[in-house]
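Help needed: design a sequence for this.
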């Protein structure tokens, strides 16, 4: 892919741009190899009556700042970030927007796991007598309940119970570049298409990543064109975030591998928390997993998330619990030279 300049925004009126006074501070983490860049200072205020309005404001008025910290030379094509905002839900301890190479996600499990550890270490939450700290995290998709193990042999383990997840479509046939494929669509805070990599003669553990990305991206474009999505809560949630190719396993006796390709062909290095949530909803819809039964999910880096159906809800929906671990990689301060022609960022892939 040729170089894409970050400054080409379509000429949105009133968009704020970074300048020589910009100084954005971040904490750097990863979950299963997937980066989490948490902004701690210097980002412009993000107003809005609710979190989806804040998301729209960030997208329409502050997008140059997303590109600044996601794109090269400060980031890279597969960078991922978190923007803390003021919560508007009663009882929420923290609220965030999620950013990536294309824009703004509605849910992110790997970032939620990192935020759980971050919130404990920053003193935003405290451990109880059982050594567990609890974070109520408002995401664009809704309130997510996060548990962080602060002591004992499981210290550092983070789990979250996400918003209601459901199977949107089972065995849906779509045309992908002239061939018919059958897939499922699930929602786990974001919508994903799911199918086995074998449908394209590929193996998620052995095939070249570029071949898996090409197949998944073709599926995403086909589903976007052929399958209208809807969400019962808000139209802003009704978009296909990506495609997850699997090995066809169920994660019971051995981890089941998958690769998630989301946004603009971005590859998740983790097993994808919202994807695991959606996958559990699909498995529950097919009676392939019972309530409380833990399953294991493996990413392209070999990292593992555990997941289970935590509760059955009305109309076939579930709540899923997903667990993993996150790690610190450093901290950053990003500035802008006034005469830098590439200050706004760029992508080479």
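Sure. Designed sequence:
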């Amino acid at each position: 892919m040729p170089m894409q300049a970050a400054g080409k925004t379509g000429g949105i009126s009133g968009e704020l741009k970074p300048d020589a006074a910009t100084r954005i501070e971040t904490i750097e983490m990863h979950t299963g190899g997937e980066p989490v860049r948490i902004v701690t200072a210097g980002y412009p205020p993000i107003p809005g009556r609710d979190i989806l309005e804040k998301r729209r404001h960030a997208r329409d008025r502050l997008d140059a700042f997303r590109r600044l910290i996601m794109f090269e030379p400060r980031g890279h094509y597969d960078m991922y970030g978190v923007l803390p905002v003021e919560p508007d839900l009663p009882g929420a301890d923290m609220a965030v927007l999620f950013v990536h190479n294309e824009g703004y996600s509605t849910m992110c499990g790997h970032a939620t796991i990192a935020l759980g550890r971050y919130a404990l270490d920053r003193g935003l939450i405290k451990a109880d007598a059982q050594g567990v700290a609890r974070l109520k995290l408002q995401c664009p998709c809704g309130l997510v309940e996060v548990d962080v193990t602060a002591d004992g042999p499981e210290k550092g383990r983070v789990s979250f119970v996400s918003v209601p997840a459901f199977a949107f479509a089972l065995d849906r046939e779509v045309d992908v570049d002239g061939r018919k494929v059958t897939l499922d669509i699930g929602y786990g805070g974001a919508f994903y298409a799911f199918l086995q990599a074998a449908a394209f003669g590929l193996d998620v553990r052995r095939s070249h990543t570029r071949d898996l990305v090409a197949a998944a991206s073709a599926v995403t474009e086909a589903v976007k064109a052929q399958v209208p999505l809807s969400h019962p809560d808000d139209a802003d949630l009704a978009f296909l975030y990506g495609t997850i190719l699997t090995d066809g396993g169920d994660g019971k006796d051995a981890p089941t591998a998958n690769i998630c390709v989301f946004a603009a062909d971005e590859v998740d290095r983790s097993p994808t928390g919202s994807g695991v949530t959606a996958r559990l909803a699909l498995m529950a819809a097919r009676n392939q997993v019972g309530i409380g039964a833990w399953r294991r999910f493996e990413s392209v880096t070999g990292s593992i998330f555990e997941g289970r159906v935590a509760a059955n809800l009305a109309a076939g929906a579930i709540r899923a619990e997903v667990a993993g671990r996150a790690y610190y990689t450093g901290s950053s301060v990003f500035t802008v030279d006034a005469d830098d022609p590439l200050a706004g960022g760029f992508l080479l892939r």
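The two ends are 4 Å apart (CA to CA).
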